[in-house]
């Protein structure tokens, strides 16, 4: 819980937008999110669908890393999302893993028509464990669910793996705009829930210290981002 807040502050400091852009300052929270997964699973397409509501069937493999910013409103809070789209190709791994630090949430994506991309999920999960902090929230996304006839990964397999890894799970389609917004909103919500838990825990800890020896039960906690 303490670690979460330490990392939160750290990521907050890293992500302060340029002073030049006054409009950028108009938010309550900024969350750094990363999209990871094998090449061609649809990471860039997913981000373009979410941020620009666009889709192209042309495949232009991402070189290194790129990002887009989008502001969302969740429960009266203005939350700026800095969404990093990573290259899936192995040769960019050193560059992309350098960006895991300070990320509060990950979309770990595979392609439901590509077994290798699903098999690789375990390795991607290990990368998250290795390079990010413990409280980073992860959603497993089986993309291209519009291609039902070509499906090689059953929905239940995705669900089972997500449960094993302790991740949330969605199937989605960047092409047909299925579950794209929902995935991002869920990720924002779980990050907010984690923040609230962390802050409530700290409040309880402080109250317990203050009342040490006076009463046993912790006071009702307050605070949190109320997301
Ligand atoms: N049918 C279908 N095709 C998709 C979908 N999402 C992406 N694609 C296609 O899959 C190909 C790869 O998509 P990208 O978004 O470039 O893949 P990527 O994961 O960013 O790949 P890298 O940048 O190499 O890591 C493109 O031809 C997209 O048009 C989808 O939901 N359904
Ligand atoms: Mg890409």
UniProtKB/TrEMBL annotation:
Keyword set, alphabetical order: Acetylation, Cell membrane, Exocytosis, GTP-binding, Hydrolase, Lipoprotein, Magnesium, Membrane, Metal-binding, Methylation, Nucleotide-binding, Phosphoprotein, Prenylation, Protein transport, Transport
UniProt record, GO biological process: exocytosis; intracellular protein transport; regulation of exocytosis
Alphabetized SUPFAM superfamilies for the sequence: P-loop containing nucleoside triphosphate hydrolases
Catalytic activity annotation: GTP + H2O = GDP + phosphate + H(+)
Function, in words: The small GTPases Rab are key regulators of intracellular membrane trafficking, from the formation of transport vesicles to their fusion with membranes. Rabs cycle between an inactive GDP-bound form and an active GTP-bound form that is able to recruit to membranes different sets of downstream effectors directly responsible for vesicle formation, movement, tethering and fusion. RAB3D may be involved in the insulin-induced exocytosis of GLUT4-containing vesicles in adipocytes.
GO CC annotations on file: plasma membrane; secretory granule
Protein name as catalogued: Ras-related protein Rab-3
Topology of this chain in the membrane: Lipid-anchor
Localisation per UniProt entry: Cell membrane
Family classification: Belongs to the small GTPase superfamily. Rab family.
Region ranges (Disordered): 208-227
Gene assigned in the entry: rab3db
A Pfam family: Ras
């Amino acid at each position: 819980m303490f670690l979460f807040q330490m990392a939160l502050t750290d990521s907050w400091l890293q992500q302060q937008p340029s002073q030049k852009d006054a409009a950028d300052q108009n938010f309550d929270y900024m969350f750094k999110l990363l999209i990871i997964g094998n090449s061609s699973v649809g990471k860039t397409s997913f981000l373009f669908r979410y941020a620009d509501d666009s889709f192209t069937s042309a495949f232009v493999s991402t070189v290194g890393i790129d990002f887009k910013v989008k502001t969302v409103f969740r429960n009266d809070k203005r939350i700026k999302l800095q969404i990093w789209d990573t290259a899936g190709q192995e040769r960019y791994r050193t560059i992309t893993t350098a960006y895991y630090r300070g990320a509060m949430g990950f979309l770990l994506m595979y392609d439901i028509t590509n077994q290798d991309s699903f098999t690789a999920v375990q390795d991607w999960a290990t990368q998250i464990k290795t390079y990010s902090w413990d409280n980073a929230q992860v959603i497993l996304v089986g993309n291209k669910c519009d291609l039902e006839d070509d499906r090689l990964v059953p929905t239940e397999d995705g669900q089972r793996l997500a449960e094993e890894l302790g991740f949330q799970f969605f199937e989605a389609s960047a092409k047909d705009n299925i579950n794209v917004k929902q995935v991002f909103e869920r990720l924002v919500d779980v990050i907010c829930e984690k923040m609230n838990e962390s802050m409530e825990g700290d409040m309880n800890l402080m109250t317990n210290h203050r009342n040490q020896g006076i009463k046993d039960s912790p006071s009702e906690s307050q605070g949190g981002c109320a997301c």
